[in-house]
Specification:
The complex is a heterodimer of chains A (618) and B (569). With 618 residues, chain A is mainly alpha-helical. Chain A is built from 23 helices and 4 strands. In chain A, helix 4 runs antiparallel to helix 5 and helix 6 packs antiparallel against helix 8. Chain B is mainly alpha-helical and 569 residues long. Chain B has a domain of 208 residues. Chain B is built from 21 helices and 2 strands. In chain B, helix 10 crosses helix 13 and helix 16 packs parallel to helix 19. The radius of gyration of chain B is 24 Å and the shape is globular. The chains are: A mainly alpha (618), B mainly alpha (569). At the A-B interface, helix 6, helix 7 and helix 8 of A face helix 16, helix 17 and helix 20 of B.
Amino acid sequence: MLVNDSLLMTLVIFLPALFGIVIFFLPQKFPEVIRWWALLGAAATFTLSMCLFIEYYAMMDRYLDDGGRPLYGKGNQLSVRIDEALRNEGQMVPGPRKSDDWVHRSRWIDRFHIQYSIALDSLNMPPIILTTFIMFLAVIASWNIKSYIKGYFSLLLFLETGILGTFMAMDLFLFFVFYELMLIPMYFLIGLWGSKRRRYAAFKFVIYTLSGSMCILIALIILYNTNVRDFVSKEEFTAEVQRLNANYPDRRGVPASEISFHTFDIRTLQKAGQAAYLFINNQIDRLEEENKKLDPESTKIPILSPGNSYKSANQHFKNDLFYSKNTQLIIFLLLFIGFAVKIPLFPLHSWLPDAHVEAPTPISMILAGILLKVGGYGLLRIAFPICPWAAEQFSGWIGFIGAFGILYGAFTALGQSDFKKLLAYSSISHMGYVVLGLAAISSKAHSQYWESGVDGAIFQMISHGVTSAGLFFVVGVLYDRAHHREINQFGGILNQMPLFSGLSIILFFASMGLPGLSGFFGELLVILSSWHFSPLLSVLAIIGTIFTAGYLLWTWQRIYLGLPTNPTRYPEISFREFLCLIPLVLLAIALGLFPQFMLLSWVDPHVSAWVHDFTQLK
Amino acid sequence: MTPTFPTSGDFTIAQDHLYRSLLLFSPELTLALTIPILLICYFLGGAFRKGYLWVGLMGTLAALGFAVMDGWPKLENIQNFYQDRIAGSNVILGTNVLNNLIFSDMIVIDPLAIILRWFILLSLAFILLLNILTRFPQKEASGDYTILLLGSTLGMMIMASANHLLMMFLGMEMATVPCYMLAAFRRTERKAGEAGLKYVLFGSAVSGLTLYGITLVIAQFGSGYLPDIARAYFFWINEDKVPMLPSIGLFLIVLGLFFKLSIIPFHFWCPDVFEGCSAEIAGFLSVASKGAALGLLIRFLFALADPNYTYVNRVLATTLGIFLGTSGVITSTFGNLLALRQTNLQRIFAYSTIAHAGYLLLPLSCISTEGVATSLFYLIAYLWMNLGVFACIAIIFQHQKTAELARLKGYFQRAPFLVTAMVISILSLLGLPPLIGFAGKFQIFSVLLSSANQSKSYFPFMQDYLWILIIFTGINTLISAGFYLKIIRILILDESNSAMTNTEKMNSRSNDLIESSCETWPQKLYLFILSSTVLGLGLFWSPLRTQMDQIAQNIQSPSQTLQMAPRSK
């Protein structure tokens, strides 16, 4: 049964891949056809994702909270929508699928309870739009790719499918499949179209990412082996028992109380993680059945499925490793390492400079603009909600790693003479804010501080996506003219290419975090919330901003000011290059001037729900 | 019981049994019948001599057809597999209680045998088709080649369904001896001679050991019938005694199987044979032969520690599990490490085969039906991805006359379709989603972890042990990425050597067998079928896994015969 939201979401994920498959059948002789076809694919995906956003926003807007505020209604929260879908699905006669709840679940691999489960909320909507937008610009930026363009554009579009699927997946297995799907296109895109040491860089990229995903895979299988029977409905559980009895005739005698239920569903595992938090803190009696009318002052947490009590759940928890301290720590560490490779955090970052330096311009844009966000998103969607107890235990260390990353990236960037390498380290520095913002866990009474930290992290992700993609394109423009990237050998670009210099200085300042431009607001929110978490880390982050300004301004001086070093005048940017640069510049300004309107007004409701899921446990 | 003179009723029963046996044995008979037909073709001469491979393929497909016709309804209705028993037939020819035991219980056609027969015949059909496509054994030689291949397959099918130690030995020898000759079939190559000789030396030494093991077992228990051995062993173990001689004997038999599976330290033959023989034979050895040996290993496992049997001895099962798991993890680790330094494609995939044999053993270490099902699933996944790789190597060899990686730089530009298919198979071997290799590897992880959780109740150390296996499997994937990516890098990312292209042009002018294009459309179709199966099964593997679960639960096991009266001798 196809319903509106399912169809639209699935289409957005797989449309690029469909366009990519068609490219295989286009004749090699007509490169222009292939380019325009790829552009059409990226544009169609971008358009559809905007439609998705409008419909999604309409859904958000439909629910009002108790005070009559739009967007903040309880009904639009992802957990509420998914719980409702799960309830409908679990009934003997499955209830109707809503066509506008932006949750889709259908069966995929029954043997392991794996579902094709995708959903939208305000945590994945911004990265989705960012992805389709940057991809569209990346296709424009790829116009001067000359060799094997068939392979290039189809891989680019397959990559887009992988990224979009990763952002939308609500089933861990599906998430992992899409997560790995990004790996191979990226390997070839760096390895075939990169510069001199491209093979080394591509190999390093794959080995690092594969190590990370092995960690994630093991964590994922541990999670699957968790007994979550207290969090699934009775009907679903009965169906499972029937399936077991049908498939394993010799197990018919086993009493129902000893049968366990396993799932990859992120929401169900999140409930299990919350229960583990309470179990470890000996507050298991705070668990309550779903849909119970609770008075507002109550500290009970209604996540058990109907018919279960905390007493029976306690019995199950004692027998399951998942609910022990050590397993929680191990799972969180595995997930964190897996995503830290992607972000990348300090000791696991060394693939990024190599990959950036060797990758062609559009691929660098995608890498910095989108792929790094997958790591941050993974922490936000999977690691923190599923292992809240361990996340809280480690929050100090994570915050420190984030703050250290800010300083480390900025210091290392100061010493670089290769423009792309400098930007790569600046990416490491900027992603440090994301991690610091996430880690700034606060107490229940001060949850607004952490909320602003998470808001800041998401804002920073989007802002960094825009500015870094723009700056990598700036490098690409310069490289096309000078055929080198040595900062010290440039000079006097301002006089030769005034328009280009004007556009790029906006991106420089946005990346620096100048008030009124996109970089400022995210960093401000993160620093504010981390001050409450730990003033030391906040101070470190502030010192980081000084160095960021330092290396960016110094770079600006060396490249744009001074006397020209090149014998022949560089031509001003072409119309295509202008077309690629101007949306990023405008977006950087708009995000800086209207952060509330552009992002925070509709992201904050879900961030506050996300934070509430966490702080209610305390 | 005193022997009485057989009555006519006994003869009727005997006759029925023979008919039934022949009927169930029809795939093997068809295969055996194809061999004289090939010989007749040889005598007829003329046009008949050109189509040996085709005749062989027809025979294989007919055998596969019989096997599917017989097996499909049984697998469809697998829950009732053991329900319809034949009443009152226990007089002369042993205990024909279960109608899937044929030829006086020497051979058992249970779900495991059914699926393995399909598996072996399917891989033979693909190998023969590949030979037709690459025109490898030219003209006259292809007759001998086909006969040897069919004979070897016959042996493997007997291995997969053997229920008696001698039958098992017969099957192993029938499977191996033709392979000695097949390994040396590229007669003009020096390395082929080396391969054949090494294979013969190692193989005969190991079959001597196996035979010795069989004598030890039969000497102690007085029977080579697997359920008898299981029963005898079971009673010994239950009295807390370990029968020394038969234990050594069983160990030696398992070593023989390890040789066929190329488990370290019995892997030495594998790289040399794979390098010396043609890629088609390497594919056959790495897929069909593995399947037969794994089937026999599973049958052994069920005889000694049947996971379906409630009163299974936990100590014995755990010991066996640790033995298999340790062998598996050592094999996969060293296989992957040794592959890192290789420069020849066939040699790399010999080590990759060794590593995958280790992966196949890992789930068996859980001694559970789920472990067996996982192992069988991985075997079937392995058929598609490994055949894909060896088919690509065979086609490359047909055109380039080499499998040295250094001479295949940038081969993608000359044969994009072939290299794409090869990359898909390689990525599947590496275990990346959404390919079938990932589904298999995911299940290995999953079954190891779930049995780690289950085993904590009776053997706490088993949990730590299985965790070590999991960690090593993860590390192994990373190591294997090293050489799989190296192949991909050389084939696609490296620039092709232009001097090489010129010599190739020279060759193609002198030798009219080599087409100007590097891949013909039947070859493309062949590769397309293999790689789309790798992708398709990788996306939707739930039914296959469910089927494997049911097969694993319905393997003929001694627990079904234990309740029966002892056999008359």
